[in-house]
Amino acid sequence: MTKIELEAIKETINKEIEATKKAIENYKELTRPIAPENAIGRVSRMDAINNKSVNEAALKKAKQKLSNLSIALSNINDPDFGVCFKCKQNIPIGRIMLMPHARFCVQCAS
Fold first, then answer.
1. Considering the entire predicted model, what is its pTM?
2. Residues in CB range of 37: below 8 A, 6 or more apart
3. What number is the average pLDDT over the span 20-42?
4. CA atoms within a 13 Å half-sphere pointing along the CA-CB vector of 8
5. Could you report the per-residue pLDDT of 37-79, keeping only the tens digit for each?
């Protein structure tokens, strides 16, 4: 991988980290407890509880993504960065730009 490609990947990772941090803050706001004294109907309360569960799952996924992006950023200068862990072939630059935390090529990931 060239130095220019690595810099582009690093920039992409940093942008993804910032976007993911903002998403995490948004999900934290959406997963706050629902006060029982709020005067909403039973159906509305059930809907709010369901939405809270969906947002909690999204929060967990976003935290995992942030962790993976941080690991990718710390490993960007390793000689094995961009190499599939399974088949040891280079991961295409397009895949790395879309998913900088990808550790496997498309064939090995499926």
1. 0.78
2. none
3. 82
4. 12
5. 656 666 677 787 788 889 999 999 999 999 999 999 999 999 8
Is the CA virtual torsion 92, 110, 72, 8 positive or negative?
positive
Bridge partners of 90?
Answer: 83
In contact, 92 and 105? CB cutoff 8 Å: yes
Can you tell me the distance from the alpha carbon of 79 to that of 8, in angstroms, rounded to the nearest whole number? 17
In the structure encoding, which two tokens stand for residue 55, read together? 């947002």
| DSSP string for residues in 24-82 | HHHHHHHTSPPPTTS---HHHHHHHHHHHHHHHHHHHHHHHHHHHHHHHHHTTTSTTTT
Q: For residue 70, which amino acid is it? A: S
Q: Return d(Cα 34, Cα 66) in angstroms, integer.
A: 27
d(CA 89, CA 23): 33
**Residue with the two structure tokens 């990947």:** 9
User: 3-state class of 5 per DSSP?
Assistant: helix
Match 């992409």 to its residue by tokens.
12
